[in-house]
Design brief:
The complex is a heterodimer. By secondary structure, chain A is an all-alpha fold. Chain A has one domain (9-86). Chain A is 62% helix and 0% strand. Chain A is built from three helices and no strands. Chain A has helices at residues 9-38, 53-79, 85-88. In chain A, α1 (9-38) runs antiparallel to α2 (53-79). Chain A starts with 8 loop residues before the first helix and ends in an 11-residue tail after the last helix. Chain B is mainly alpha-helical. Chain B has four domains: 4-420, Sodium/glucose cotransporter, CATH 1.20.1730.10; 547-610, no CATH class; 621-730, Helix Hairpins, CATH 1.10.287.130; 734-885, Heat Shock Protein 90. In chain B, the strands form three sheets. A five-stranded mixed sheet of chain B has the order 4-6-7-9-8, covered by helices on one side. In chain B, β6 (804-811) and β7 (815-822) form a beta hairpin. The longest helix of chain B is centred in the last third of the chain and has 76 residues, at 619-694. Chain B is elongated. Classes of the chains: A mainly alpha, B mainly alpha.
């Protein structure tokens, strides 16, 4: 009876699929971050870009914080399902009626 | 005004607090109650040693000179941390699996536990770390001087302070960094202390920032305006420097020995990295948040003062003395935590890769002789810590305190990132070899020293000004700061560009050209595929070592209790009692890894090698292992095949057994049947003959009785004929009168004898005369007998309302098949295997009128004729296929 399929395969597959896509997003995040961090070097005061230290600083720190927030969301989503394995498993038997 | 004495008192109190915290943490850890000592928060905070005094004081100074460029130093690490799934996860995983003790150990371990690489990386680390430690000493000395009377702000006074600080840090580091030789090289006390320091420096910098933004200025809007009006209002970041610095800082996060120490070696749970991946960037973010405001306010408030000390001097000059004290503590924390961890990391490398190999080589009988290795290792570390700090002090002493903090930090970064190609290549490319790694390291290191490190001491300090300006021997293409005539580039960008390019190129080319040794290939596969299989590498194949000697050695390195526990467990796993397991390759591998946690992979390998009489795994050994594996696989394949064959045989046996059982039942029923069959006619014959003997019957009755007796005798005779026939056929005593005949003739004869004209009872026989025009080589009488049997069976058993029989003849090449298909019920599948057996009858015997020998005789006949008779299922009724060999020569 070991080769019977899991009781709730669709549910599990969706979850692991989602996990992989989250990991993909996590890998892409630094790439996006690098791109955004490199944008300021293209700004030129003569073309009207926000070239001042103050404005650029606000931009940099905003992107920076965005990266941190994105990283936090993704890494939490990535770690969470591993922590409680019983939560993934569907209940083996119908719950006993409470008295 | 805060007095210098108060500062010294606060410093001592603070150091005492660190001692207490570290001691408490050590005690907790010793009791096994790790708990929050090893939480993601502590892990993240320990990473904050990235932010040294260079960050605490230097970032503001840097921002005052170059504006936002300072942020690159934190943006690079942010990207690397956020992208932890790319590299850091693998790095930490390998570090934990292989019990890596330092970055030199990692490189050495990856490239076949090569000590050469270990030494190279160690030297690189020492050279790269020394300026950095000098930088910390300088910043602490400068910050002390701020509080001191003006007269003490002389080089000599700074020097003295630096020396005292270096000595104090040496004591602390030795106390908590080399208390014992851990199996996995983790220092709970130190980690706890630096976590506390991380909090102190963050709080201090944030406090100064808040003070500046809301105390001095009127909130963020005012700060924004002040930045716009300041000397750094314009974005003056050089594109090349921006990109280079982001890369440099990101790479340094991985390559700096102290970062490797806290991130990989001290990591206790890989999941902590997931938290640190965003929490550490957040820490950096907060540390950087107020840098520009502090710089701008400092520049406008304290023109002419050293911008590297604004964090301290701003609150002090604005009479926020307690804030200045906090700020001082923050800077002190930043410097001390960095120095402590860097000293531990570098001393581990020095003792494992330089001192231990020399020590092992000096003692010819090696690790086997008496004497506690642990003491030697610990002593080597203590001396190394002292030496590293002394070097840092000497660098500070020699270079003077003139150079800006940021410049020294960046030179140091550029030095240590020379490890990057070998590290990343080793983690992702199995083709990376030791030769390539060593070549790349040497070239990168040399180029870095030539283009950046040596010129950094100042013109004519190490390099003559003449050489700097015109190149060595007047070769302009080799000018240190303009290689190949690329001039006008920032010296740092120039150095990083050339060193990394040449380093990577040499690494790749030499890797492609060279051939890795066996152990190197094993380790390479292990590292690159860390997530695929986390099994131990096959390092030891023969095991000449005595378990007792190994235990003696292990006790001296990892301590008696731990060694005994380990040996006992290993013995138990092998199913043995006591402390001495068999020295299997697996056990040796495990032991080596355990030892590697204390003395590094290369040394551990060498020690176990000495014990076992091998210095390395030879190709022959690996071949032997591979052969063994191949044999095992072949054997297992054979076993599998045999098991399948056994399964088949068992299935056949089961079928045969079933058949035998059924036959036995059939035979039993036949015995009763045959006696019944014989008895019934005998009974009537006896009864009627008795009547005839009594003579009471008239003429017509007598004739009738005689007729019955005759009929019954014929029945008996037929039964006995059948039995005799079958017996003859089975014993092979039959003689066949072979002839070549037309098949249609035989079928004609058979039909004629089964269906005498006039007795037709609506039984239709359909034939295909044109197909029957085939010549067969057979005994016509015997074949006709088979056909007769089949046709009469069909007549007897076909239960259809309009019974009909199709006779289908087809030419199958070498043989002719004749199918007899009726339109009745057919024969159930359960009976199909039995009908050709003797005495088998499916229906009740009353209707059958035979003893069930017909088909059995048919089968024997066909076998004798070289053909066959089979039941043909799925034809809509009972169907029998007779296969008759063809007359070869006359095939038409």
């Amino acid at each position: 009876m070991t080769d019977t399929p899991p009781r709730n395969p669709l549910f599990l597959e969706r979850r692991s699929y989602r996990r992989r896509r989250i990991a993909d997003a996590g890998r892409l995040l630094p790439v996006a971050g690098l791109f955004l961090f490199l944008v300021p070097v293209l700004w030129r005061p003569e073309t009207g870009g926000p070239a001042g230290t103050a404005a650029s600083g606000v931009y940099l720190f905003a992107v920076w914080f965005g990266l941190i927030a994105g990283g936090a969301l993704l890494s939490r989503a990535l770690v969470r399902p591993e922590d409680p394995p019983p939560a993934i498993r569907p209940p083996e038997a119908p719950q006993e009626p409470r008295r | 005004m805060i007095s210098l004495n108060l500062i010294i008192a606060v410093c001592l109190a603070y150091v005492l607090l660190l001692f207490v915290i570290a001691a408490l943490a050590e005690r907790r850890a010793a009791n096994g109650r790790l708990g929050w000592l090893r939480s993601p928060v502590v892990y993240t905070l320990s990473l904050s040693i990235y932010c040294t005094a260079w960050t605490f004081y230097g970032a503001v100074g840097y921002a005052s000179r170059s504006g936002l460029e300072f942020a690159t130093i934190y943006l690079g690490p942010t990207l690397v941390m956020v992208g932890w799934l790319w590299l850091l996860r693998k790095l930490v995983s390998i570090g934990r699996t292989q019990k890596i003790t330092s970055i030199a150990d990692l490189i050495s371990s990856r490239y076949g536990k090569s000590n050469l690489l270990g030494v190279l990386v160690t030297l690189l680390a020492v050279v790269g770390t020394t300026p950095y430690i000098a930088l910390q000493l300088q910043s602490v000395a400068l910050s002390f001087a701020v509080f001191a009377p003006a007269a003490s702000d002389t080089p000599a006074a700074l020097d003295r302070t630096a020396l005292i600080v270096a000595a104090g840090l040496t004591v602390f580091t030795i106390l908590f960094g080399t208390r014992r030789l851990d199996a996995n090289e983790q220092h709970h006390g130190v980690v706890m202390a630096i976590a506390l320091e991380a909090v102190v420096k963050l709080v201090a910098l944030l406090a100064v920032g808040v003070f500046v933004v809301w105390g001095v200025a009127d909130g963020p809007a005012d700060i924004f305006d002040r930045i716009e009006a300041s000397p750094i209002a314009e974005w003056r970041v050089d594109t090349g420097r921006w990109v280079t610095l982001i890369f440099l800082a990101g790479a340094a996060l991985i390559c700096l020995p102290r970062m490797f120490q806290v991130m990989v070696v001290e990591n206790s749970d890989e999941r902590h990295l997931a938290t640190a991946s965003w929490a550490f960037p957040l820490y950096l973010f907060l540390m950087s948040l107020f840098v520009i405001p502090i710089a701008v306010v400092g520049m406008s408030t304290l023109p002419g003062e050293n911008p590297d000390l604004y964090v301290l001097t701003l609150p002090l000059r604005l009479n926020a003395e307690w804030l200045a004290l906090l700020s001082f503590l923050g800077g002190f924390s930043s410097a001390t935590s960095m120095v402590i961890v860097a000293a531990i990391a570098v001393s581990t490398m020095v003792s494992n890769h330089i001192v231990m190999p020399i020590w092992l080589a000096l003692r010819k009988d090696g690790a086997m002789m008496s004497g506690d290795v642990r003491d030697t290792v610990l002593m080597a570390r203590r001396v190394s810590i002292g030496a590293v700090l002394l070097l840092g002090y000497l660098y500070f002493h020699l270079s003077g305190s003139g150079a800006a903090l940021a410049a020294i930090g960046l030179i140091s970064f550029a030095g240590v990132v020379q490890v990057l190609p070998a590290l990343v290549g080793g983690l992702f490319w199995r083709g990376a070899t030791r030769t390539g790694a060593a070549g790349g390291l040497v070239i990168g290191f040399a180029v870095w020293a030539y283009t950046l490190f040596l010129p950094s001491f100042g013109v004519s300090a190490v390099m003559p000004a003449e050489m700097l300006a015109n190149g060595p021997f007047g070769l302009a293409a080799l000018r240190p700061q303009a290689l190949l005539g690329i001039s006008g580039v920032d010296p740092l960008v120039h150095a990083v560009f050339w060193s990394m390019t040449l380093n990577t190129t040499v690494f790749v080319v030499l890797s492609l050209l060279s051939f890795p040794g066996p152990l190197e290939r094993v380790q390479g596969a292990e590292f690159v595929n860390i997530f695929a299989h986390r099994s131990a590498a096959q390092g030891w194949s023969r095991s000449a070592a005595e378990a007792e000697d190994l235990l003696a050695m292990a006790q001296r390195i990892i301590g008696p209790a731990e060694a005994q526990t380990m040996f006992q467990r290993a013995a138990a796993e092998q199913g043995k009692g006591g402390y001495l397991p068999d020295t299997t390759p697996a056990f040796l591998e495990r032991l080596e890894r355990q030892l590697a946690g204390s003395v590094g992979a290369a040394t551990a390998h060498a020690m176990v090698g000495q014990m076992t009489g091998e210095t390395a795994v030879t190709v022959e050994d690996l071949m032997a292992v591979a052969d063994e594996t191949a044999q095992m696989m072949e054997y297992s394949n054979q076993l599998e095949a045999k098991s399948a064959e056994l399964g088949r045989t068992a299935r056949q046996l089961r079928d045969v057994n079933e058949k035998l059982t059924q036959l036995s039942i059939q035979k039993d029923s036949f015995l009763s049947q045959i006696s019944h069959e014989l008895r019934t006619p005998m009974t009537s014959i006896r009864a009627f003959s008795e009547i005839l003997m009594e003579g009471g019957a008239n003429e017509s009755e007598r004739r009738r009785f005689a007729h019955i007796i005759h009929d019954e005798t014929i029945r008996l005779t037929r039964l006995l004929d059948d039995l005799l026939d079958l017996s003859v056929l089975e014993n092979g005593q039959v003689t066949l009168n072979r002839a070549v005949v037309s098949l249609s003739e035989v079928i004609d004869r058979a039909i004629a004898s089964t269906v005498p004209p006039g007795t037709e009872r609506g039984f239709e026989i359909r034939r295909t005369p044109e197909a029957e025009r085939l010549q067969v080589d057979t005994d016509p009488d015997r074949l006709a007998q088979v056909f007769i049997n089949l046709i009469s069976n069909a007549r007897k058993y076909c239960a259809a309302p309009e019974p009909s029989l199709r006779i289908v003849v087809s030419d199958q090449g070498g043989a002719v098949t004749v199918d007899f298909i009726d339109n009745g019920h057919g024969i159930p599948a359960s009976g199909q295997t039995m009908i050709f057996e003797k005495f088998a009858r499916l229906t009740d015997q009353a209707r059958a009128g035979g003893a069930g020998l017909g088909l059995a005789i048919c089968r024997e006949v066909m076998a004798k004729l070289g053909g066959a008779i089979t039941y043909l299922p799925g034809q809509g009724g009972a169907a029998f296929r007779v296969t008759v060999p063809r007359a070869e020569a006359r095939a038409a």
